[in-house]
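User: My collaborator sent over this chain with a note saying "see what the structure looks like." That's all I know about it. Can you take a look?
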Amino acid sequence: MMYNDVFRVMFGRRFQTADDPLFNELKALNVERSRLSQSFDFNYADFIPVLRPFLRRYLNRCTQLNNRRMKIFEDHFVQERMKALEQSGKITCAIDHILMAERKGEINHDNVLYIVENINIAGIEGTLWSIEWGIVELVNHPEVQSKLRDEMAAVLGPNVALTEPDLERLPYLQSVVKETLRRRMAITMLVPHMNLRDAKLAGFDIPAKSKILVNAWFLANDPKRWVRADEFRPERFLEEDKAVEANGNDLRFVPFGIGRRSCPGIILALPIMGITLGRLVQNFKLLPPPGLEKIDTTEKLGQFSSQILKHATIVCKPLEA
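Assistant: Without extra context I'll predict from the sequence alone. Here is the result:
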């Protein structure tokens, strides 16, 4: 689903089945990229620079993987859209705007490929992990499911399918999405930044060109700054924290970063999460696997992400019409 959502917006195309060879190759390459980039087994030199000389094999693997990914984007997507744009002259998807910027000399072709690569990473993985966490929390909190279902029935009417324009009329659904991003932040450490000049922060000296990591998860789960921070409680965004949004208007909650370097994927992630979770609750009662009362929420930690350690197959019980 996530691949089709992102690739339809980006390239105007979709994968017809899960057996599509190109889909499976992309998925395998993404899994390997995530493993290499986030595993402490490989990336320890980011934190212990003196060990960098021992990372030659690791860096070679990263380079080879990156070259394979770029070739797929170039051969199967970018070149295809370049030809279509030359023939029709019509802009029909996001990559067309990027290719037009290249034509005007605003960016070069390497920029095009890296934009495509970044959207492929951020638009698919982070949103997918967040949806998984949202489903887990809904299963483990049936009272939240019921409140969410009641809100949609009251606002939309019976048997009316949720669509994107409806999201702004559903404050509790928005709160469920925000609470998922707060309590189960998929990208725990924001994308690394670098300061160009020497700086001071809270009395500490930060040398120029330091790698700066922001622990966004801790900001969003600090018990000194949130009421009952360790609870999954969407109501907080309708009560004491009703002014807090996911766009970084409050520094306690910055799941997409803040300012000029914030993640542009917010415009896709929030509606996709809202529609996916809302449609599931509209049509099904989400239950834990048979024999279990709740789903295990133990986390599998990477350098920058938090994922579910043990995936479970939930029960989706259709609601009576």
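A starting point for your reply to your collaborator: The CA atoms of residues 70 and 210 lie 28 Å apart.
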